[in-house]
Amino acid sequence: MSWFPFWPLLGLLAVAALLPLAATLLRPPATRGRREADLALYRAQMDELAREREAGRLDEAAHRAATLEVQRRLLAAPAEAGPRSGRGAWRLLWALVLAVPALALGLYWRSGVPDMPSAPFALRQEVASRDEEMLQLLRSRLAALDPASPQVQEGYRLLGNAERSRGALGPAAEAYSRALAARFDADLAGQLAQVLIEDDKLAEAQQVLASALPQAPRHVGLRFLTGLVEARAGRPANARNLWQALIADAPAEAPWRAMVERRMQELP
Questions:
Q1: What is the Cα–Cα distance from 34 to 17, expressed in whole angstroms?
Q2: CA 175 from chain center: how many Å?
Q3: SS3 (DSSP) at 211
Q4: Domains of the chain
Q5: Non-local CB neighbours of 145 within 8 Å, separated by 6+ positions
Q6: With CB atoms 3.0 to 4.6 Å apart as the test, which of 77, 102, 230, 245 could cross-link to 238 if both were Cys?
């Protein structure tokens, strides 16, 4: 590979990547509230997931799981905090437009290896094996701690996140269950229920939600997931009633309101 055309090409790619930001800076600034920003991000992520599914990079199960995760994050989004703007932010953005390409080229000139081949299968397998050893070490250390200690709950939460990120839904659910046994946490109960829903264990998810809701009756995520279990179990009327009650209690500016309404429209 010739190095001479590589660097100008890399510079052009960096400039092209930052052109949308530069175009935004040239337009008059427009303030955007937190709710509008959350909804815009939600729509963009949903569109991206749809494209990934159409391209064959996501199967139906993975698409459903990713969609549910995006919706969970939207449900957990904080309330409207009011837009903020200032000249300092725009100066910083302009500085980034100019500095990022120069910094990137400098760093790549110093340490970049454009001819490096992709990691071989044996190396990827070695990394996966090393990750499993680390998780096993975490499991053994957690087993030696007092089950009621705060460290145990946080440790099992991290273990559940790690297992879930690599698609091990069963071990993830077990880790979340152990974390929840240490001390009740509504968000953690929602994570456990969501993993069970992704794993098509609707009866178990329903049990988790039925136990958690009396302890956090106004938790948006738990109420939404309860309706989702009903919808997945073939009880759309129950799901509609639950989601209608959720929307009735929601403030008008709730960022997740439109998502729940769309879910209701998709019910048969």
A1: 26
A2: 19
A3: helix
A4: 6-79+88-111 (no CATH), 121-266 (1.25.40.10)
A5: 151, 152, 155
A6: 230
